[in-house]
Amino acid sequence: MNSRCCGIWIVTAWLVPLTLVLPVAAQENATLKGKVVFKGDTKKFGRNKLDTAKDPNCKVNQGKRGIGSYEVIINRTDPPTLQNVVVSIRAGLGDREFPVPNQEVRLDQVGCEYVPHVVALMEGQALRVTNSDPTNHNVNIQPRVNPPENFSQPRPEPVGKVLKFKTEEVPIKVKCDVHLGWAPG
Q: CA dist 176 to 51, 123, 138, 159, Å?
């Protein structure tokens, strides 16, 4: 199955959209590298530490670091940069199509957080959702276009469940209903 690049994005936090147009000839390959620089007052976007005491398994897995909010995560570098940014090339590709990758994308619950926090995949590409924690979780995937998914995951579940999305949709929110009061989604 061929699909236009880059379709489904599973996003478990707010997406920072960025569109780039790159002139690349049809016979060339290209690599895009870079960073997104934050301009503004970084103090307005501090991470709020979330209380995980309601589930001792989560608190133990987090250690002293703890779980923080995910609305915006700013690296304290000079200049400050943003984490969890997805870049999408929406123009300049002509009518070229790209095959759906055979490689699965993995979304794991580790320390009562989704890791990685943002993933990008194409329509039809497999997403494997796993649970590495010694506690029960729930996976509630809340798309607006694709069919929703809502299932429990026993502790631990390294095999997980494989999902595929047929229609492009950005973003798709994922949350854990077991830890709804505090688990970042």
A: 15, 23, 5, 18
